[in-house]
Amino acid sequence: MKRIQIINGPNLNLLGKREPTVYGNQTFEAYFLDxxxxxxxxxxxxxxxxxxxxxxxxxxxxxxxxxxxVLNAGAYTHTSIAxxxxxxxxxxxxxxxHISNVFKRETFRHHSYMSEACKGCIVGFGLDSYRLAVDAxxxx
Length: 140
Ligand code: DQA
Hints:
Blueprint: E1 2-8, H1 20-23, H2 28-38, E2 42-48, H3 52-62, E3 68-72, H4 81-89, E4 94-98, E5 120-123, H5 128-139
Helix pairs in contact: 3-4
């Protein structure tokens, strides 16, 4: 059974309440239940933090043992060389996801420090971006 870790970064704990026109009305907790029910052949863990160092610690903790990591680093995507270095330091492949199409938004969202370190990126499909990332991991 493949083991998949989902990591959400800052402000993603407020999904459902936060800017619903951009991020939708669903909480991640509700979406997560849907997601795990779609993939009985996989085992999922979910972690969210608003703190850069805790995201790095989680990558170190799971990044040599699980089969795939789905990472939405939130705004750290555009600022964090430290998270990008953590992705490069581990052996588990990481898929970068974004709910919104960052390329349709402010220019500061067009650059990602994560992308070069990740196996691939899925951007702009709403919460379904996570499902697409899991599909990709299950093909590895
Ligand atoms: C986001 C896009 C980021 O630019 C933003 O800071 C987020 C969410 C997304 O999923 O669309 O917090 O990663």
